[in-house]
Amino acid sequence: MTTISTAPVSLYGFLTPKPGHADELRSLLMDLVEPSRGHAGNLQYHLHEQEDGRFFLYEIWRSQEDLDRHNTTPLLRAFMDELPEHLEGAPEAYFGAMKSSYPAIVA
């Protein structure tokens, strides 16, 4: 199995909507998926909805630089500005470099 030479980074976590805000939060999160997948260095970008109503976001980026670049896009900045209005408490977020290898993408 071939692997890429730099360690990808992952970002994942749970977001709990305020009562009555699940639809708005779902829409905001869904609006991030396809554009984020198109950003340079994105390897994975997935949104899940848990049975308890929380949303689980899972991202893998080729490098920290790619994630940093994504975080400065107008799309993400607008999302972050609007997010607190719809969240119950702070996001439960985790971040780190991957220790397992990530398969190279073969064109």
Automatic annotation (TrEMBL):
Q: Which InterPro entries match?
A: ABM_dom, AI-2_Isomerase_LsrG, Dimeric_a/b-barrel
Q: Which SUPFAM superfamilies match?
A: Dimeric alpha+beta barrel
Which top-level group of life is the source organism from? Bacteria
Q: Which Pfam families match?
A: ABM (PF03992)
GO molecular function terms here? Answer: catalytic activity
Query: In what residue span(s) does the ABM domain sit?
Result: 9-95
Please give the start and end residues of each transmembrane region: none
The cross-references to PANTHER family, in alphabetical order and at most eight, read: ABM DOMAIN-CONTAINING PROTEIN (PTHR33336:SF3), QUINOL MONOOXYGENASE YGIN-RELATED (PTHR33336)
Listed name of the protein: ABM domain-containing protein
Task: Give the species this sequence originates from.
Answer: Amycolatopsis keratiniphila
